[in-house]
Amino acid sequence: MKKLSKIYSKIEHFFFVPSNNDEFLLFFRVAAGIIIVLHFISIFGDFNQFFSSKSIVPLDIMATFNQDWQLTFPFVIKQLETIGISEVTTIGVTKITYISLGVSIILGFYSRISACLLLFIQILLMKGSSFFIYGADFFTSMSLFYLILFPSDSVFSIRNLFHSKQKKKTNYMPVKRLFQLHLSIAYFFSGFDKLLGFNWWNGESIWKAINLPYANRDFSFDFAWMADYSFILVLIGWSTILIEMCYPIFVWIPKTRKLWVVLTISMHIGIALVLNLYYFSAIMIVWNLTNFYFEDTPSLATHKKSILHSLFLNKKKVFKLT
Has this prediction a pTM greater than 0.70? Predict the structure, then answer.
């Protein structure tokens, strides 16, 4: 019974003991919001080619993997057309609403409500264009989900200007621990999946990735020389597997946490530069910094208190000397 009570107390301490460091809430809200808005702006001009009746892929083909009961953006357009609202109007309102909600999240103007509405719109767009979505879209959805769970607009936000009364601080640690475990599990199984096949062992996956027709367009790195030094491809492949699979271990150890965060971020920077997956890499870097960079960093309020405390002690010493 004593062992069980100790285990229970440790679990309770891990999930429920509050933290005074809430700077990560501001960072996550602003950084994720900026990425979400920029990602949408990047496809703003081609919106009709992805999500309208003039899509590159016909809507009936796009709907192959959707159930009849599923809400999608094309379905919403059709329903609104039956009551006299044109497709052009729906698309225009959707564009303005999407960006407005993203800006509301960044500024902290009722971020939870904004994230909830934006998540609904984003899922409508994703389900209606399954041929065009990729990893960044899924992590955008998950980021919006965590923005709903976190009291992210409680720190340095416009919303605070409308609420002069200080509210009781909510304990966000259970959500943060869930977020951290989510990221750790995602990396582990990503690495485990790579370990199961031989393509990552011999560097074949790396060679294929850097030679994809749509990759390496912005900087045009010359990787032809790697054909004569295949051991480098093998080294990169195994490094990726080890970084991802060992993430749930070393990122939780204080002494190795910063090193593993740096290695993981370096991996995503490489993915961004070589594979041109900028938004995916950016949102993964934000997830890493949000979850583990602020673990060892004292909050600004705590830092101010420590400075004032040290000044107070110094004054006491001066008075004693005099």
Answer: yes
